[in-house]
Design goal:
Order of helices and strands: EHHEEHEHEEHEH
Number of strands: 7
CATH class: Alpha Beta
Number of domains: 1
CATH topology: Spore Coat Polysaccharide Biosynthesis Protein SpsA, Chain A
Strand order of the largest sheet: 3-2-1-4-6-5-7
Oligomer: single chain
Strand content: 15-25%
Distance between the termini: 37 Å
C-alpha cells in the first residue's frame, strides 16, 4: 500500500552508543548484542507488512544488515523530535496518506499492532502506542503535526502525557493502542526473555 508508510528508526550498533543504560549494567558489548537482537526482532515483525517501509539510520546507512527490501535514509534534525518530524514530512511529501513511526526497542510489538495503528487512522487524526516507561513505542498520523515534536521531554516519563495534551490542544483526535514495554534497562530485557521462555514452553 503505497499510501501507507512505516518509518523505522534505528541506531547503528556501535559500542557505547546503543542501549547505554543496559551497558551500565552488563557492559557495552552485551548492550550491542541486546540491540542486535531487538533490531532482528523488528525486522521479523515488519518485513511482510503490505506497507511502504523506510529505515532511518542515526549515523550511516549500512547496506548489508538485514534490511534488504526497505528504503534506507539518514535521520536529519537537531534532536529526536526534529528527526522524527523531518522523516514524517519526507514521507508525506512523497505521497503517503498515513505514516507511522516505530523504533527498534520493543520485543512485544507485533504485526497486529501495526495493522491496528493504520486502521486507527481511518478515524483518528493521530495514533499513539504507549510505553510503560511513560513514552511511546509508536506514533502515527495522517498529516504532519509539528507541535507534537516541539519542546518535548524526550526519554522522560512525561513524554506520552504531554504529547497527548498537545494533540488535544490542537483540536485533534487520537486513539491509544495497547501499552507495551520498551527495552531500556537490563531488567527489561531479562523480563522479556523470561516471558518468552514461559510463552514458548
Amino acid at each position: 500500500m503505497a499510501t501507507h508508510h512505516l518509518i523505522i528508526f534505528v541506531k547503528n550498533p556501535i559500542p557505547g552508543t546503543v542501549k547505554t543504560r543496559i551497558a551500565q549494567t552488563v557492559g557495552n558489548e552485551k548492550a550491542v548484542e541486546v540491540y542486535r537482537h531487538l533490531v532482528h526482532y523488528t525486522q521479523q515483525v515488519t518485513r511482510y507488512g503490505p506497507w511502504e517501509k523506510t529505515v532511518y539510520y542515526a549515523d550511516f546507512v549500512n547496506p548489508n544488515d538485514g534490511w534488504s527490501g526497505y528504503e534506507k535514509a539518514i535521520q536529519a534534525g537537531h534532536d529526536l523530535g526534529g528527526r522524527m518530524a523531518n522523516a514524517f514530512q519526507e514521507r508525506f511529501a512523497a505521497g503517503a496518506e498515513k505514516v507511522i513511526i516505530i523504533g527498534s526497542d520493543c520485543l512485544t510489538i507485533t504485526e497486529d499492532h501495526l495493522f491496528a495503528a493504520f486502521r486507527a487512522l481511518d478515524e483518528a487524526d493521530v495514533v499513539i502506542g504507549p510505553a510503560t516507561d511513560g513514552g511511546y513505542y509508536l506514533l502515527g498520523m495522517r498529516k504532519l503535526h509539528s507541535s507534537l515534536f516541539e519542546n518535548m521531554p524526550w526519554s522522560q516519563p512525561e513524554l506520552r502525557l504531554l504529547t497527548e495534551q498537545a494533540i488535544l490542544m490542537q483540536g485533534l483526535t487520537f486513539e491509544r493502542l495497547e501499552e507495551l514495554t520498551d527495552i531500556d534497562e537490563w531488567s527489561d530485557y531479562e523480563q522479556a526473555m523470561r516471558s518468552k521462555l514461559k510463552n514458548d514452553a
